[in-house]
Task: inverse folding
């Protein structure tokens, strides 16, 4: 096995490493040191467990370890499934030094992390992301939670993992559509704050489309480094961290309105970033050409750049009114001044948002 890339999320006594590389699932020696107690619950789903669960369990010899296999999909990112994780921890007899391992994509990571935040008011959890999206984004930074019918991630907690172990070999089994959804969050990092990275991506669309290992690994490491730096400066989204939400106010509304799992999170973010760019141009903050450049990159990565036809702009706006960034009942969005220059914009006028939503309808 090649030595993994190791990055660091600097959060004082809650700092943790991010390991990125091939073969890590079978390299318990690299990550077991982050498990301190005797009880371990591995949480996975019915798609991932047959592929990888036995290999992770094989690394947990000598511990009191159990596994819980949840149903697959965004539609199951619910409080009901959290109750199942908590019941499994009770059955295991998990004490305060227990550790939850999240083996899966962002859905499993968000849920396992939230259950770990709740059990006995907070126990360790270790992220083992198996999707590109989870490797570049959701496994890092400690946002955990579930959806409600009213909106995405409306219930949750900030709860940092004790380590992130990203075995890049697991991407070999990831379906094409899921891989591309992960690329949307990769593009997001360039769009929000790193124009050089966006240019780097533009030069590598062909390599990324054929999943060239070197290009994909470098992209994961660069995204994690970017996110780790932002999270270290603003762990609980008092300011700068909100920039990681570029495209998400529109995107979450689309996911909720279409029905969870219909539009993948990354697809919704791709469309949402284009809508944020369109709104920025409408408000005179940015040139339309920047939005066109972003859309060209997303299209080169086979991602959608416009919402499905026939959606109701008022229904989308209603979802946007429940976004967690809003303050004082006013919309607060992440817009931009151009590639790499995202900004938090308060008091956005609903009529401008409606105009962007109606353009696409
Ligand atoms: N906490 C955060 O900071 C954060 C950041 C971004 C996204 N998210 C959340 O993450 C979720 C999306 O995550 P996702 O895109 O990973 O989706 P996902 O977790 O639903 O996984 C995508 C699909 O791929 C399957 N899968 C996972 N790994 C596989 C593998 N190696 N081989 C074959 N199949 C595999 C899954 O079973 C699922 O069907 C959303 O709920 C989103 O809100 C959270
Ligand atoms: O880590 C963050 O901060 C992000 O915003 C990353 C997003 O990609 C992610 O989808 C996150 O879950 C969205 O957060 P939310 O607070 O809008 O639910
Ligand atoms: Zn996201």
Result:
């Amino acid at each position: 096995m090649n030595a993994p890339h190791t990055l660091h999320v600097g959060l004082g006594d809650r700092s943790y490493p991010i390991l990125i590389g091939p073969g890590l699932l079978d390299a318990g020696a690299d990550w077991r040191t982050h498990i301190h107690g005797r009880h371990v619950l591995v949480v996975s789903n019915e798609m991932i467990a047959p592929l990888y669960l036995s290999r992770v369990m094989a690394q947990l010899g000598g511990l009191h370890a159990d596994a819980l296999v949840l149903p697959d999909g965004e539609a199951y990112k619910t409080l009901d499934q959290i109750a199942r994780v908590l019941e499994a921890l009770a059955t295991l007899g998990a004490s305060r030094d227990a550790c939850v391992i999240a083996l899966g994509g962002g859905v499993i990571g968000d849920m396992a992390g939230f259950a770990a935040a709740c059990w006995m008011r907070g126990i360790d959890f270790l992220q083992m992301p198996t999707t590109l999206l989870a490797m570049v984004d959701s496994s890092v930074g400690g946002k955990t939670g579930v959806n409600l019918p009213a909106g995405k991630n409306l219930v949750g907690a900030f709860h940092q993992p004790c380590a992130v172990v990203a075995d890049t070999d697991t991407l070999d089994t990831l379906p094409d559509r899921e891989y591309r959804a992960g690329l949307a969050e990769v593009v997001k990092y360039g769009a929000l704050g790193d124009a050089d990275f966006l240019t780097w991506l533009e030069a590598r669309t062909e390599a990324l489309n054929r999943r060239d290992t070197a290009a994909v690994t470098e992209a994961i490491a660069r995204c994690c480094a970017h996110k780790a730096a932002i999270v270290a400066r603003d762990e609980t989204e008092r300011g700068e961290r909100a920039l990681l939400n570029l495209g998400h106010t529109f995107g979450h509304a689309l996911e909720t309105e279409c029905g969870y799992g219909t539009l993948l999170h990354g697809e919704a973010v791709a469309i949402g970033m284009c809508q944020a760019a369109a709104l920025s141009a409408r408000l005179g903050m940015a040139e339309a050409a920047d939005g066109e450049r972003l859309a060209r990159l997303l299209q080169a990565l086979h991602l959608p750049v416009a919402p499905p036809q026939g959606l109701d702009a008022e229904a989308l706006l209603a979802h946007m009114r429940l976004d967690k960034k809003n303050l004082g009942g006013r919309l607060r969005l992440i817009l931009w001044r151009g590639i790499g220059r995202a900004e938090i914009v308060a008091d956005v006028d609903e009529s401008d948002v409606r105009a962007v939503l109606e353009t696409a309808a």
User: Anything to note?
Assistant: Residues 137, 185, 248, 265, 269 surround zinc ion (ligand 3) (CB under 6 Å). The chain has 14 helices and eleven strands. The mean pLDDT is 97.
